[in-house]
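Protocol step 6 of 9: fold each sequence in the batch and record its structure tokens directly after the sequence line. For illustration, a two-sequence batch is reproduced in full.

Sequence one:
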Amino acid sequence: MTRRVQILVALALTALWGAGIFAAHAGGHLRFLDRLEATLTDWRTQVRGVQRPPDLVTIVAIDDTVVKRGGSYPLPRADLARVVDTIVQFKPKVVAIDLLLVDRSAAIGDATLANTLATGPMVLAAAAIFPSASENVAPGSAGPLAVLPQAERFLLPLPAFADHAEVGIVNVATGQSGSPLSVPMLFRTRDKVELSFPLRVATRALDKPLTIAPDHLMLGDRAVPTDSDFALPITYYGPRRTIRTVSAQSIFDGTLNRAAIENRIVVIGASVAGGGDFYPTPFDSLMPGVEVVSTAITHLVAGDGIVRDHRVHIADALAAILLPMLLVGLLAWRRSALGIMAAAAVMIAWAGLNTYAFTHGVWLNAATTLAAAVPPVAIFAGVQLWAGGRRTQYLAAKSRSLAQFQAPAVQEWLARDPNFLSKPVRQDAAIVFIDLSGFTSLSERIDPDALQEILQAFHARIDKAAVDCGGMITGFLGDGAMILFGLPAAMPDDAARALKCAIDLHRGVEHWIASRPSAIGGQLGFKIGAHFGEIVASRLGETHQHITATGDTVNVASRLMEVAVRNDARLALSNALLDTADFQGAPDGVLSGPLLAQVRGRSGVVTVWFWRDRDGPKQAAAKAEAID
């Protein structure tokens, strides 16, 4: 098969893959892409930043201040009637009550509230009850409304209230991340279709007729672009209280500002800790549901929502097919760094265009396009590399060997001798072990992203200390590391450099832990063990090789960390290391010992010394910061 035919076959397969990914996701499969899209949406929203919303809506929040005043939640109906009555007197466009008034309470309170609801334009919240956690579409349905979420029934307000107000369904659609990304505009049961709460409020506020078209809604003569299931995509303006919010307590105190109510849409809802519904959003881990609903209302009234309609889906389909083909074509055009750079430039341009479109009101799907592009590009690039590797086998083997080691001296040595340590070598070397304490229990309580940041910062400290002292990290062991001094060849000052590295690690990690928030730093500690003696150095592995050191010296260095912990110390040094380093003490450190310690898994005893800073942790932290 000629190269041209191979490229054509690759392009055809890539196009089929992209079309298949898009069709599968559009058909309700590949739900893992929804989680990825939610994450990318959060990131794009944060890139866009906080925006000032159109000043159309005021949220009157039944918050903790109100509950502390009244002593109970839900708010008594008589108190709610007082809130509504005061708002109505200030002449709002519409009063929307985002509370489910479905249960009876004290008769006088219900009667008072019912009479109050009759005094102004009101919209009450209802809820759709679904047969499961997901909102399913019945199979075999037909017509434009077949795609609507089908509920078993609607949980409506009491008739005494509903007779004086319009009703809308308040459910929102949360993605796999738990963050509401859209709000359904229409709901149905087997025999009934209801408007959503935001759509009912917007229709009443605008006082314009609503028309349901096959793929969008019309508010008067203005089109409201919706997703394929009549859901309104939403994008958040900022964290909670970005939309104007006042506490209902200001009504009871008589301090409510008329300007916050007059000729505005007023949404009454709960933001009580533990009492209201809260959702994670890109700007806020806990945003009250009433502000999510108010965001949708603002989009509908202002017409500033993000567009994700059928035209956008067509663009998504084209991107899922054409972008992978373009990338594969670029890699086939230049089987070199130029082709990779061109493909990378196209990916960067696509990412920039996608982000630009999102920040300017068009929601192009990113996850589906990535899923369509990454596998075929990775496979094609892999095949290209494999084909090129056959022609440059020796150089590729040399490059792989060099890439397996971190220390620059070892890389230089391998360049001269590719068979370095292909046979085990016995020699003297110094070994330093370090390990975090409390990391495992901490990892059970904090966010994985925060945990990764802690581990990266810790590894960076180890890497800096090892490189500065000429050591080689043979491996990171999760929350610890082993550093070897003595390769590529044993040097007279290996022990001295290992000792300096251990002391630098002690100061640097102590300073780093002290700089963490107390909730994290208070849970962390560390231990270090260092020893000098004979090791066996070798290369292990087949396709992926690494340098390692084994022997009693390595075991003793590791066990010295346990000895340090048992003796309320952080740095344990063997007498062999100190003697070889010709350590005479230092004016800024205190060496205590010697201690004849029993080391687990080894007969006999080891002479151990313990080191600490003379000036104490604060001065040691200052020294470590100065070194950084």
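Sequence two, same batch, same settings:
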Amino acid sequence: MSAEATNPDAGAEFRSGAAQSRRRGRTRLDLRRLGRAALLGTAPRDRLPDAIGHVAEAHRAHHPDADLAVLRRAYVLAESSHRGQTRKSGEPYITHPLAVTLILAELGAETTTLTASLLHDTVEDTDVTLDQVRAEFGDEVRFIVDGVTKLEKVDYGAAAEPETFRKMLVATGNDVRVMSIKLADRLHNMRTLGVMRPEKQARIAKVTRDVLIPLAERLGVQAIKTELEDLVFAILHPEEYERTRALIAAHAAEHDPLPGIAEAFRAVLREAGIPAEVHIRPRHFVSVHRITLKRGELRGSDFGRLLVLVGEDADCYGVLGELHTCFTPVVSEFKDFVAAPKFNLYQSLHTAVATDGHVAEVLIRTRQMHSVAEAGVIALGNPYAPAEAGEERTDRAEERIDPTRPGWLSRLLDWQQAAPDPDTFWSSLREELAQDREITVFTADGGRLGLPAGASCVDAAYALHGTAAHGCIGARVNGRLAALGTRLVDGDTVQPLLGGDSAAEPAANWLEHARTPAARIAIREWLNAHPDHARQQTAVPRAPGPMVGARADGGNAVADLPDATVRLAGCCTPVPPDTVAGFVVRGGAVTVHRVQCPAVDRMRSLGRTPVAVHWRATADCRVTLVAESFGRPHLLADLTEAISREGADIVSATVEPPTEQRVRHTYTVQLPDAAVLPRLMRAMRDVPGVYDVGRV
């Protein structure tokens, strides 16, 4: 199916630049006609040809003082270099760089981006070299053109596509404009994909879905993202697409309540004295499809949302207050992305109000927020240009100066270095981008760490410490000890705990908790390099010794029952000066429990009468202790040494198989004096890796 044929204007309503063009009265451009005119037309060389003239007009709408001479030179080089080349549709090839550049111009891209966009295929498809580009247009343009230039299949074979994306993403880490051009390039290619074979359409659409659309989301370029979603939807899900298009067409023939609600909003805001614009934003195809799956039968107001644009941040909350006062708010629909922007710096207030039997979803934002929400990084111009004299960068602008600052890109640039294999990189990239939400957690020193939703303490450890996280023995989350598999949520404070042993090793089951490619790649590499250790971890580390039950002697306990055999209960191991109670059991023996032991309540509920028990004057006693710890080498030896230093004799010991890197040690020890017990328990807790010691 040709996405271009089924929906030639998909997404046009959602590009802010295009909307401005319509307000200025310009009609949508026929790029194919302009491309032919550019090659065959009569425009003199001393002025801009008609085709690039339309790009210049769109560019000047956002940048009135832009120098257009460089665009003319770039167009002349691109047109002459591509002359004689055609696309698979038979059109002159120059129509493609022109279309890509026009997309970027309408979104507000600055001159350097447009210059590189016009030239983005010259090095790949013509005899133009990067040195020529640098000599004519400078280092910035040369870097961007190189960043979007594909690697040759002749040299890389099947690895050409993943390695091209790797190269492009690394270049994006140094200049985010590289990915801006790639997104616009893919958008035009998707618009004209109908000339391809169906199987090739599907392959390109899947890569677009798995890689390009998530990248557009992360860079905040919603205008491109939404149109790409619709085009992919048409190709990969043609039946659902047709049903959705039929729904939208049927709605167009019915009464739409949104214009009336919009007018009511305008009246309320005028009366409140808040200068604002109220627009109706039709939902794009994929959005309508998602709402259909969520709600079933759609209402008339479900096919669009109301957008309120204001001048200042404070006005956003003023509008919110007026709408919630004059209409009935749907509290569950309220979200504040102004005070807490999304990880791609999207800002807006989301709410919904009920009026006249309809529920209208509302977006409230400033015009600057709207520009960034639609065009993302493209709307920010050149994020690397130094601030002009007297101009101060805002905190928001500061976030975009260094494009490696966003958590997702920083993580990607780190882990890709550890994935030299193209298949590992390609699969890991898709896994990373499949995480459609990001959380922010805080480190113990107050730093911030961006992680994908669902990340665990394992991911935080590798994000903070790299391969040193192999020695992680646990973590604190919000000040409390937690297992490494604990999932983190937005706002948590996490502190991975590293052991001091350089020979420490990761556990194979950490892979079950790792969500980031950095963690998964590091763990897999270690396990692959140490297959014997990996096998040992899956086996029981040692055969557990026998658990100590009720003892045959009563130690220092004496029951007030003549000739009765006294035993200390193994469930609570009482020692002097514990308050105890005894119960006669089968065979006439008296079993002694601490009064806090649950067994005492059970005995009383069964009608058993307790027997009075007291302690002899002698001070030695026997007790069972349980040490909870994080697994690490030599832990058993260190615990044994700590017990011996306190003068206690180990009667028996049990070490259970580790669970989630936690190990449970059970020791029955003979103490020379019950007063030693608190000191012994403190000494055991001081052993590195041990986080709790208690009586059985």
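Proceed to step 7 once all outputs are recorded. Observation for sequence two: The chain has a mean pLDDT of 78.
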